[in-house]
Amino acid sequence: MGIKVSPRTCGRIMAKHRALYGWEKPKGQVKPKKEMPFKASRRHEFWSIDVRYIEHHQLPGVKGPVYVISILENFSRMLLASIISEKQDTAAYLRVFAMALRNYGAPEAIVTDGGGIFYSPRALAIYEALDIRPVTVHIYTSTLKVEYQETDLALYTITWHEDNTHITEVTNPHVIETGYRSPQLTLWTLGPDEWLLFKKLPEYANRKKRKNSEVTQLLLPGFDKSQPQAM
User: What global pTM score does this model have?
Assistant: First the structure.
């Protein structure tokens, strides 16, 4: 019918209907509670380190998303150090890592994903010097960033196959407003993950046939067939 609503709006409408007619919300399958991975038995046994991005913020003079790099102590669930950075690079990570080391000493192990900033040569040298054991958690979703001249243009969530080499799904697209004027044609949105580069024209109607299909070609003026032509 051409009506498009988000899943959240559909959920609110269904909740109104359940309240109106006295229906109960269907209960899903009860899943067993999973234990926290890398659960620590003592302080500073494991530090969990992760990077998250914030697209909508109010930081003055900052275009595009910012990155929050945080270090969590697994036993006490205490946030040891955290910074907001315009870049997601090794220098930003080592800066927040140095803050945690300076205030709390070195952990026995750190838990991270397979990001390159956590396994750069400088980071590995620090782990080796302080006898820190890096532990990699295999996460099958990641964020793809499209950028141009250090300006973020779009973000996507990518779901990887278990072999960590094949992409199975691309979802959650975010187009970031920038001051650039794209040389491409305008994209018309068909859905949350579907666009058209241009609008399709309607199909052409079949040409009507003429009633009299006979056509007579008139002779060119001054042309006489009986006279020889100059070569």
Answer: 0.52
Q: Which domains does the chain have, with CATH numbers?
A: 37-196 (3.30.420)
Count of residues making up the chain: 231
138-141-147-151 Cα dihedral, nearest 10 degrees: -90
Q: How far apart are CA 83 and CA 96, in angstroms?
A: 6
Q: Which residues, including other chains, have CB under 8 Å from residue 43's CB and lie 6 or more apart?
A: 73, 75, 76
Region of 12 please: left (phi>0), alpha (psi -120 to 50) or beta: alpha
DSSP string computed for 127-152:
HHHHT-EEEE---SEEEEEEEETTEE
The CA distance from 193 to 54, in Å, is 21
Number of H helices, E strands in the chain: 3, 10
- What residues contact 122, with CB distance under 8 A and at least 6 apart? 90, 94
Contact between 150 and 86 (Cβ < 8 Å): no
Average confidence (pLDDT) per 10 residues, the chain, 231 residues: 80 89 82 79 93 83 86 94 90 95 95 86 94 81 72 76 68 73 59 61 68 60 57 49
Show Cβ contacts of residue 179 under 8 Å, excluding neighbours closer than 6 positions: 63
Sign of the dihedral through C-alpha 25, 29, 169, 37? positive
